């Protein structure tokens, strides 16, 4: 047989305020209530649970051991309800509850996470769902899956649409035969060694290269590690391998052509997106390069 609780979260909230403020009078002032209504709420609560929750030490109200144990259990529920009510008020004001962010995995991580940190600090009620993608343009993405997206720029995109221009450098380990051999390496020399390529791997997998000369990986980190271990050469994002290039453990391949490639990334807002403050603040921060990005240019 179902039973309903005899105590309420409001009563527990009043109890917590009495403890935090130290007295019934101070709690009444903090809650904008009469002292008698505060005393009544606590009395009803103690009657409902069948045990004393407070005791007086001088003029200060403190929890009994039982009161401390029970309030510790109920406090998260009070906080959750306050959060839900706050979210409801933000919804009523047109604020986003959830921001779906789709980001190419080449986008600079310091900028990405700095933007997320500042956004959730300023708008703690907004939830961000982050999904990384690999070399997708807007044409290959359904609008149902994002609110903001940083993707490979559509042909012809320019100006404010572009939020990052990622430079890829043909790179190999310092001990790789392509580095030690004649420079620039010929096309036939390149063809003799495996090349790593970052590619989205779908449910059906990928087709393996019949000559074994192409390694498919689905993360930037895996591509860099493959080159670091001398297994492959490949075009790697310059901003992620600067330390290795400076120290010489990785070397740029001095190709006659195609030594460097650029991948422009653009920021897109879903059509019909509500221009709520949290979403627009995140968009603004994603557009802003970090200081280390500017210094490295």
Defining traits:
297 residues; alpha/beta; Arc Repressor Mutant, subunit A; D-Maltodextrin-Binding Protein, domain 2; two-stranded antiparallel sheet; 11 strands
Describe the structure.
By secondary structure, the protein is α/β, with parallel strands linked by helices. The chain folds into 2 domains: 85 residues, Orthogonal Bundle (Arc Repressor Mutant, subunit A); 189 residues, D-Maltodextrin-Binding Protein, domain 2 (3-Layer(aba) Sandwich), CATH 3.40.190.290. The chain is built from 11 helices and 11 strands. The strands form 3 sheets. Strands 3, 4, 5, 6, 9, 10 and 11 form a 7-stranded mixed sheet that branches. Strands 1-2 form a two-stranded antiparallel sheet. Helix 1 crosses helix 2, helix 1 crosses helix 3 and helix 5 runs antiparallel to helix 10. The radius of gyration is 30 Å and the shape is elongated. The termini are far apart. The mean pLDDT is 86.
